[in-house]
Amino acid sequence: MKTLPDNPNLDHLRQQAKDLLAGLRDADPTATLTQAQAALAAQYGFRAWTDLKTEVDRLRGQADTADPALARAIADRYGLGEVVGEMRSVARPDDTGRRWSLPTDQGRWAVRTMDTWWPIVDAETDVALQQAAAAAGVLLPAPVRSRAGNIVESIDGHSWRTYEWLHSGPPLSAPASSSVTREVGRILATIHGLALPVDRISPWHRSRLSAVGWPELAATATAARASWAAALREAVPTLTDLDAVAPDGPAPEPVLTHNVLGPASTRLAPDGRLVVVGWEHAGGQPPSWELGNALLDWTVNPGGGVNTAGARALVDGHRAKAGALPPLDLGMFRGAVHSLANYVFGQVQTALDTHETEDRRYADRSVRHLLSNLPTRAVLEQLLAVATSAHRRPPSPSSLGHPTVH
Fold first, then answer.
1. What CA–CA distance (Å, rounded) separates 334 from 247?
2. What CATH class is the domain 178-399?
3. Which residues, at least 6 apart from 311, have a Cβ–Cβ distance to it below 8 Å?
4. What is the topology classification, in CATH, of domain 68-164?
5. In terms of domain of life, where is this protein from (predicted)?
6. Range 202-214 average pLDDT
7. What's the pTM value of the predicted model, to 2 decimals?
Protein backbone atom coordinates (compact mmCIF):
# COMPACT_ATOMS: atom_id res chain seq x y z
CA MET A 1 0.00 0.00 0.00
CA LYS A 2 1.23 3.48 -0.83
CA THR A 3 1.94 5.72 2.16
CA LEU A 4 1.02 9.39 2.37
CA PRO A 5 3.81 11.73 3.44
CA ASP A 6 3.63 13.43 6.84
CA ASN A 7 2.56 16.71 5.23
CA PRO A 8 0.61 15.54 2.16
CA ASN A 9 0.02 17.83 -0.78
CA LEU A 10 -3.16 17.49 -2.83
CA ASP A 11 -1.37 18.88 -5.90
CA HIS A 12 1.13 16.00 -5.66
CA LEU A 13 -1.74 13.53 -5.54
CA ARG A 14 -3.33 15.12 -8.60
CA GLN A 15 0.01 14.75 -10.40
CA GLN A 16 0.23 11.11 -9.34
CA ALA A 17 -3.25 10.54 -10.74
CA LYS A 18 -2.25 12.12 -14.07
CA ASP A 19 0.87 9.93 -14.23
CA LEU A 20 -1.25 6.87 -13.45
CA LEU A 21 -3.77 7.85 -16.13
CA ALA A 22 -1.02 7.60 -18.76
CA GLY A 23 -0.41 3.99 -17.73
CA LEU A 24 -4.11 3.12 -17.64
CA ARG A 25 -4.55 4.54 -21.15
CA ASP A 26 -1.88 2.16 -22.46
CA ALA A 27 -4.44 -0.60 -21.92
CA ASP A 28 -7.64 1.42 -22.30
CA PRO A 29 -7.47 4.66 -24.34
CA THR A 30 -10.88 5.66 -22.94
CA ALA A 31 -9.69 5.69 -19.30
CA THR A 32 -10.56 8.93 -17.52
CA LEU A 33 -8.90 11.03 -14.86
CA THR A 34 -11.75 10.14 -12.50
CA GLN A 35 -10.89 6.46 -12.93
CA ALA A 36 -7.22 7.19 -12.34
CA GLN A 37 -8.06 9.11 -9.17
CA ALA A 38 -10.19 6.22 -7.91
CA ALA A 39 -7.39 3.74 -8.69
CA LEU A 40 -4.85 5.92 -6.90
CA ALA A 41 -7.10 6.23 -3.84
CA ALA A 42 -7.33 2.43 -3.73
CA GLN A 43 -3.53 2.19 -3.82
CA TYR A 44 -3.47 4.35 -0.70
CA GLY A 45 -6.04 2.04 0.90
CA PHE A 46 -9.13 4.25 0.51
CA ARG A 47 -12.46 3.47 -1.13
CA ALA A 48 -12.73 6.71 -3.10
CA TRP A 49 -10.84 9.84 -4.11
CA THR A 50 -12.96 11.89 -1.71
CA ASP A 51 -11.87 9.64 1.18
CA LEU A 52 -8.23 10.17 0.20
CA LYS A 53 -8.74 13.95 0.09
CA THR A 54 -10.29 13.81 3.56
CA GLU A 55 -7.24 11.96 4.87
CA VAL A 56 -4.95 14.56 3.27
CA ASP A 57 -6.85 17.31 5.09
CA ARG A 58 -6.55 15.38 8.36
CA LEU A 59 -2.80 14.87 8.07
CA ARG A 60 -1.78 18.23 6.62
CA GLY A 61 0.60 20.10 8.89
CA GLN A 62 1.24 17.14 11.18
CA ALA A 63 4.89 16.54 10.28
CA ASP A 64 7.12 16.12 13.32
CA THR A 65 9.82 18.67 14.08
CA ALA A 66 13.21 17.55 15.36
CA ASP A 67 15.01 19.13 18.30
CA PRO A 68 17.04 22.06 16.89
CA ALA A 69 20.08 20.76 18.76
CA LEU A 70 19.79 17.44 16.92
CA ALA A 71 19.49 19.22 13.57
CA ARG A 72 22.63 21.23 14.32
CA ALA A 73 24.50 18.10 15.43
CA ILE A 74 23.66 16.28 12.17
CA ALA A 75 24.59 19.29 10.06
CA ASP A 76 27.89 19.64 11.91
CA ARG A 77 28.76 15.94 11.77
CA TYR A 78 28.16 15.79 8.00
CA GLY A 79 29.48 19.27 7.17
CA LEU A 80 26.16 20.47 5.74
CA GLY A 81 26.45 24.12 6.76
CA GLU A 82 24.45 26.24 9.18
CA VAL A 83 20.86 25.15 9.88
CA VAL A 84 18.42 27.80 8.60
CA GLY A 85 15.05 26.14 9.26
CA GLU A 86 13.24 23.35 11.03
CA MET A 87 14.20 19.74 10.44
CA ARG A 88 10.87 18.09 9.60
CA SER A 89 9.80 14.49 9.12
CA VAL A 90 8.96 13.47 5.56
CA ALA A 91 7.03 10.24 6.18
CA ARG A 92 6.08 7.74 8.86
CA PRO A 93 8.84 5.27 9.83
CA ASP A 94 9.42 2.42 7.39
CA ASP A 95 11.42 -0.80 7.61
CA THR A 96 14.68 1.16 7.60
CA GLY A 97 13.92 4.16 9.78
CA ARG A 98 12.46 7.62 9.20
CA ARG A 99 13.17 10.25 6.58
CA TRP A 100 13.65 13.94 7.42
CA SER A 101 14.27 17.16 5.52
CA LEU A 102 17.05 19.43 6.81
CA PRO A 103 17.58 22.96 5.36
CA THR A 104 20.94 24.70 5.74
CA ASP A 105 22.66 27.66 4.17
CA GLN A 106 24.22 25.20 1.70
CA GLY A 107 20.90 23.79 0.52
CA ARG A 108 18.40 21.14 1.54
CA TRP A 109 19.45 17.66 2.66
CA ALA A 110 17.65 14.35 3.01
CA VAL A 111 18.61 12.68 6.28
CA ARG A 112 17.22 9.47 7.69
CA THR A 113 17.50 7.26 10.72
CA MET A 114 18.74 3.72 10.15
CA ASP A 115 17.66 2.25 13.49
CA THR A 116 15.64 -0.61 11.96
CA TRP A 117 17.88 -1.14 8.93
CA TRP A 118 18.45 -4.78 8.11
CA PRO A 119 21.42 -4.50 5.72
CA ILE A 120 21.87 -7.08 3.00
CA VAL A 121 25.25 -5.55 2.22
CA ASP A 122 27.13 -2.95 4.24
CA ALA A 123 26.79 0.78 3.64
CA GLU A 124 30.12 1.09 1.84
CA THR A 125 29.00 -1.57 -0.65
CA ASP A 126 25.65 0.06 -1.41
CA VAL A 127 27.39 3.43 -1.81
CA ALA A 128 29.87 1.88 -4.25
CA LEU A 129 26.88 0.63 -6.26
CA GLN A 130 25.27 4.07 -6.20
CA GLN A 131 28.45 5.75 -7.36
CA ALA A 132 28.95 3.25 -10.19
CA ALA A 133 25.30 3.60 -11.25
CA ALA A 134 25.53 7.40 -11.21
CA ALA A 135 28.70 7.28 -13.30
CA ALA A 136 26.80 5.09 -15.79
CA GLY A 137 24.02 7.66 -16.09
CA VAL A 138 21.46 6.67 -13.44
CA LEU A 139 20.04 9.77 -11.75
CA LEU A 140 20.04 9.47 -7.94
CA PRO A 141 20.55 11.64 -4.84
CA ALA A 142 24.25 11.53 -4.03
CA PRO A 143 25.11 9.96 -0.65
CA VAL A 144 27.04 12.27 1.71
CA ARG A 145 29.91 11.20 3.94
CA SER A 146 30.47 12.69 7.35
CA ARG A 147 33.50 14.82 8.16
CA ALA A 148 35.12 11.60 9.42
CA GLY A 149 34.44 9.88 6.09
CA ASN A 150 31.64 7.65 7.36
CA ILE A 151 28.34 6.89 5.64
CA VAL A 152 26.49 5.99 8.85
CA GLU A 153 26.95 8.05 12.01
CA SER A 154 25.54 7.60 15.51
CA ILE A 155 24.00 10.85 16.77
CA ASP A 156 21.74 11.32 19.78
CA GLY A 157 21.18 7.57 20.15
CA HIS A 158 20.20 7.01 16.50
CA SER A 159 22.06 5.86 13.39
CA TRP A 160 21.90 8.38 10.53
CA ARG A 161 22.56 8.61 6.78
CA THR A 162 22.55 11.75 4.67
CA TYR A 163 21.89 12.44 0.98
CA GLU A 164 21.82 15.49 -1.22
CA TRP A 165 18.24 16.69 -1.74
CA LEU A 166 17.33 16.11 -5.37
CA HIS A 167 14.18 17.99 -6.36
CA SER A 168 11.60 15.66 -7.88
CA GLY A 169 7.91 14.90 -7.97
CA PRO A 170 5.95 12.36 -5.92
CA PRO A 171 6.55 8.60 -6.18
CA LEU A 172 5.21 6.98 -9.33
CA SER A 173 2.38 4.43 -9.44
CA ALA A 174 1.61 1.23 -11.33
CA PRO A 175 0.62 0.62 -14.00
CA ALA A 176 3.09 3.15 -15.38
CA SER A 177 3.13 4.39 -18.95
CA SER A 178 5.24 2.57 -21.50
CA SER A 179 7.63 5.54 -21.69
CA VAL A 180 8.32 5.13 -17.97
CA THR A 181 8.62 1.34 -18.02
CA ARG A 182 10.98 1.47 -21.00
CA GLU A 183 13.29 3.69 -18.97
CA VAL A 184 12.94 1.39 -15.95
CA GLY A 185 14.10 -1.51 -18.13
CA ARG A 186 17.04 0.55 -19.32
CA ILE A 187 18.03 1.49 -15.76
CA LEU A 188 17.86 -2.14 -14.63
CA ALA A 189 20.05 -3.20 -17.54
CA THR A 190 22.51 -0.43 -16.69
CA ILE A 191 22.79 -1.62 -13.08
CA HIS A 192 23.04 -5.28 -14.10
CA GLY A 193 25.68 -4.38 -16.67
CA LEU A 194 27.94 -3.04 -13.93
CA ALA A 195 28.32 -6.71 -12.92
CA LEU A 196 29.46 -5.80 -9.43
CA PRO A 197 30.14 -8.99 -7.46
CA VAL A 198 28.15 -10.05 -4.42
CA ASP A 199 28.47 -13.15 -2.27
CA ARG A 200 24.81 -14.16 -1.99
CA ILE A 201 21.24 -13.56 -3.09
CA SER A 202 19.27 -11.27 -0.81
CA PRO A 203 17.62 -13.50 1.84
CA TRP A 204 14.41 -11.53 1.29
CA HIS A 205 14.28 -12.87 -2.29
CA ARG A 206 16.05 -16.20 -1.79
CA SER A 207 13.44 -18.00 0.33
CA ARG A 208 10.57 -17.73 2.79
CA LEU A 209 11.89 -16.36 6.07
CA SER A 210 9.15 -17.89 8.22
CA ALA A 211 8.23 -21.55 8.56
CA VAL A 212 4.67 -20.64 9.57
CA GLY A 213 2.22 -21.80 6.91
CA TRP A 214 -0.56 -19.65 5.49
CA PRO A 215 -3.39 -21.69 7.08
CA GLU A 216 -1.70 -21.37 10.48
CA LEU A 217 -1.26 -17.62 10.05
CA ALA A 218 -4.91 -17.25 9.05
CA ALA A 219 -5.94 -19.24 12.15
CA THR A 220 -3.88 -16.89 14.34
CA ALA A 221 -5.55 -13.84 12.79
CA THR A 222 -8.98 -15.39 13.28
CA ALA A 223 -8.24 -16.15 16.93
CA ALA A 224 -7.11 -12.53 17.39
CA ARG A 225 -10.39 -11.33 15.79
CA ALA A 226 -8.50 -9.21 13.27
CA SER A 227 -10.84 -7.21 11.07
CA TRP A 228 -9.15 -8.64 7.97
CA ALA A 229 -8.97 -12.29 9.13
CA ALA A 230 -11.61 -13.42 6.63
CA ALA A 231 -9.68 -11.80 3.79
CA LEU A 232 -6.55 -13.68 4.84
CA ARG A 233 -8.42 -16.99 4.96
CA GLU A 234 -9.73 -16.34 1.43
CA ALA A 235 -6.19 -15.50 0.24
CA VAL A 236 -4.64 -18.75 1.53
CA PRO A 237 -5.16 -20.70 -1.76
CA THR A 238 -3.61 -17.87 -3.81
CA LEU A 239 -0.62 -17.55 -1.47
CA THR A 240 -0.12 -21.32 -1.42
CA ASP A 241 -0.26 -21.52 -5.22
CA LEU A 242 2.31 -18.72 -5.51
CA ASP A 243 4.64 -20.61 -3.16
CA ALA A 244 4.64 -23.45 -5.68
CA VAL A 245 6.01 -21.07 -8.34
CA ALA A 246 9.12 -20.47 -6.22
CA PRO A 247 10.46 -23.79 -4.89
CA ASP A 248 13.82 -23.81 -3.14
CA GLY A 249 16.75 -25.10 -5.17
CA PRO A 250 19.69 -23.94 -7.32
CA ALA A 251 19.45 -20.31 -8.44
CA PRO A 252 21.20 -18.22 -11.13
CA GLU A 253 24.28 -16.22 -10.17
CA PRO A 254 23.43 -12.87 -8.58
CA VAL A 255 24.88 -9.42 -9.23
CA LEU A 256 24.89 -6.49 -6.82
CA THR A 257 21.76 -4.53 -7.64
CA HIS A 258 19.12 -2.13 -6.34
CA ASN A 259 16.75 -4.94 -5.25
CA VAL A 260 13.55 -2.87 -4.81
CA LEU A 261 13.32 -0.77 -7.97
CA GLY A 262 9.56 -0.36 -8.00
CA PRO A 263 7.35 2.75 -8.24
CA ALA A 264 7.94 3.66 -4.58
CA SER A 265 11.68 3.99 -5.31
CA THR A 266 11.27 6.17 -8.39
CA ARG A 267 10.40 9.83 -8.97
CA LEU A 268 10.30 12.17 -11.95
CA ALA A 269 12.83 14.99 -12.00
CA PRO A 270 11.76 18.42 -13.35
CA ASP A 271 13.46 17.59 -16.67
CA GLY A 272 11.43 14.36 -16.97
CA ARG A 273 14.24 11.95 -16.10
CA LEU A 274 13.69 9.14 -13.60
CA VAL A 275 15.24 9.57 -10.16
CA VAL A 276 16.06 6.34 -8.31
CA VAL A 277 16.05 6.32 -4.48
CA GLY A 278 15.97 3.57 -1.84
CA TRP A 279 19.45 2.12 -2.35
CA GLU A 280 19.72 1.06 1.32
CA HIS A 281 18.14 -2.29 0.36
CA ALA A 282 20.80 -3.06 -2.26
CA GLY A 283 21.95 -6.67 -2.41
CA GLY A 284 22.41 -9.68 -4.61
CA GLN A 285 19.79 -10.86 -7.07
CA PRO A 286 19.96 -12.65 -10.43
CA PRO A 287 19.16 -10.21 -13.27
CA SER A 288 16.32 -12.42 -14.49
CA TRP A 289 14.70 -12.33 -11.04
CA GLU A 290 14.88 -8.55 -10.79
CA LEU A 291 13.46 -8.21 -14.30
CA GLY A 292 10.55 -10.43 -13.26
CA ASN A 293 10.05 -8.40 -10.11
CA ALA A 294 10.00 -5.18 -12.15
CA LEU A 295 7.38 -6.55 -14.54
CA LEU A 296 5.16 -7.44 -11.60
CA ASP A 297 5.69 -4.12 -9.79
CA TRP A 298 5.32 -1.79 -12.76
CA THR A 299 2.83 -3.28 -15.24
CA VAL A 300 -0.04 -4.92 -13.35
CA ASN A 301 -3.33 -3.00 -13.53
CA PRO A 302 -5.83 -2.64 -10.68
CA GLY A 303 -7.80 -5.89 -10.60
CA GLY A 304 -4.88 -7.97 -11.85
CA GLY A 305 -4.80 -7.18 -15.56
CA VAL A 306 -1.48 -6.66 -17.32
CA ASN A 307 -0.51 -3.42 -19.07
CA THR A 308 0.79 -5.23 -22.16
CA ALA A 309 2.31 -2.11 -23.73
CA GLY A 310 4.11 -1.27 -20.51
CA ALA A 311 5.46 -4.81 -20.09
CA ARG A 312 6.73 -4.94 -23.66
CA ALA A 313 8.36 -1.53 -23.28
CA LEU A 314 10.13 -2.60 -20.08
CA VAL A 315 11.56 -5.67 -21.83
CA ASP A 316 12.46 -3.58 -24.89
CA GLY A 317 14.29 -1.03 -22.74
CA HIS A 318 16.27 -3.71 -20.93
CA ARG A 319 17.23 -5.52 -24.14
CA ALA A 320 18.16 -2.31 -25.98
CA LYS A 321 20.59 -1.36 -23.21
CA ALA A 322 21.95 -4.82 -22.39
CA GLY A 323 22.03 -6.23 -25.91
CA ALA A 324 20.37 -9.44 -24.71
CA LEU A 325 17.82 -10.56 -22.14
CA PRO A 326 18.37 -12.92 -19.22
CA PRO A 327 16.46 -16.26 -19.32
CA LEU A 328 12.70 -15.83 -19.61
CA ASP A 329 10.68 -18.53 -17.86
CA LEU A 330 8.37 -18.76 -14.88
CA GLY A 331 11.42 -19.05 -12.63
CA MET A 332 12.18 -15.37 -13.27
CA PHE A 333 9.40 -14.56 -10.76
CA ARG A 334 10.96 -16.66 -8.00
CA GLY A 335 12.49 -13.71 -6.15
CA ALA A 336 9.30 -11.66 -6.53
CA VAL A 337 7.17 -14.46 -5.08
CA HIS A 338 9.50 -14.98 -2.11
CA SER A 339 9.70 -11.25 -1.36
CA LEU A 340 5.91 -10.94 -1.61
CA ALA A 341 5.42 -13.84 0.79
CA ASN A 342 7.88 -12.32 3.26
CA TYR A 343 6.18 -8.94 2.95
CA VAL A 344 2.69 -10.38 3.51
CA PHE A 345 3.85 -12.28 6.57
CA GLY A 346 5.60 -9.19 7.95
CA GLN A 347 2.60 -6.91 7.40
CA VAL A 348 0.21 -9.41 8.98
CA GLN A 349 2.49 -9.89 11.99
CA THR A 350 2.91 -6.14 12.41
CA ALA A 351 -0.85 -5.61 12.33
CA LEU A 352 -1.34 -8.34 14.93
CA ASP A 353 1.32 -6.87 17.20
CA THR A 354 0.34 -3.18 16.88
CA HIS A 355 -1.90 -1.65 19.55
CA GLU A 356 -1.42 2.14 19.35
CA THR A 357 -4.57 3.55 17.72
CA GLU A 358 -3.08 5.46 14.77
CA ASP A 359 -0.52 2.76 13.95
CA ARG A 360 -3.16 0.04 14.20
CA ARG A 361 -5.47 1.99 11.90
CA TYR A 362 -2.72 2.25 9.30
CA ALA A 363 -1.61 -1.40 9.69
CA ASP A 364 -5.15 -2.77 9.31
CA ARG A 365 -5.75 -0.68 6.19
CA SER A 366 -2.41 -1.83 4.76
CA VAL A 367 -3.16 -5.52 5.29
CA ARG A 368 -6.66 -5.27 3.81
CA HIS A 369 -5.26 -3.53 0.75
CA LEU A 370 -2.44 -6.04 0.37
CA LEU A 371 -4.70 -9.09 0.60
CA SER A 372 -7.16 -7.66 -1.94
CA ASN A 373 -4.42 -7.00 -4.50
CA LEU A 374 -2.38 -10.20 -4.54
CA PRO A 375 -1.11 -11.35 -7.93
CA THR A 376 -1.95 -14.86 -9.11
CA ARG A 377 -0.09 -17.53 -11.04
CA ALA A 378 -2.23 -16.55 -14.05
CA VAL A 379 -0.90 -12.98 -13.86
CA LEU A 380 2.69 -14.26 -13.77
CA GLU A 381 2.02 -16.50 -16.76
CA GLN A 382 0.54 -13.56 -18.67
CA LEU A 383 3.57 -11.39 -17.85
CA LEU A 384 5.84 -14.18 -19.06
CA ALA A 385 3.90 -14.52 -22.30
CA VAL A 386 4.16 -10.77 -22.95
CA ALA A 387 7.89 -10.72 -22.12
CA THR A 388 8.53 -13.71 -24.39
CA SER A 389 6.63 -12.17 -27.30
CA ALA A 390 8.53 -8.91 -26.83
CA HIS A 391 11.79 -10.88 -26.86
CA ARG A 392 10.97 -12.38 -30.26
CA ARG A 393 10.35 -9.07 -32.02
CA PRO A 394 12.89 -6.35 -32.93
CA PRO A 395 13.26 -3.55 -30.37
CA SER A 396 11.06 -0.56 -31.12
CA PRO A 397 12.90 2.54 -32.44
CA SER A 398 11.98 4.50 -29.30
CA SER A 399 13.85 1.99 -27.12
CA LEU A 400 17.17 2.61 -28.86
CA GLY A 401 17.73 6.20 -27.69
CA HIS A 402 17.63 7.90 -24.32
CA PRO A 403 14.24 9.65 -24.27
CA THR A 404 12.99 11.97 -21.61
CA VAL A 405 10.13 10.39 -19.68
CA HIS A 406 6.81 12.24 -19.63
1. 8
2. alpha beta
3. 181, 295, 299, 383, 386, 387, 390
4. Phosphorylase Kinase; domain 1 (3.30.200)
5. Bacteria
6. 94
7. 0.92
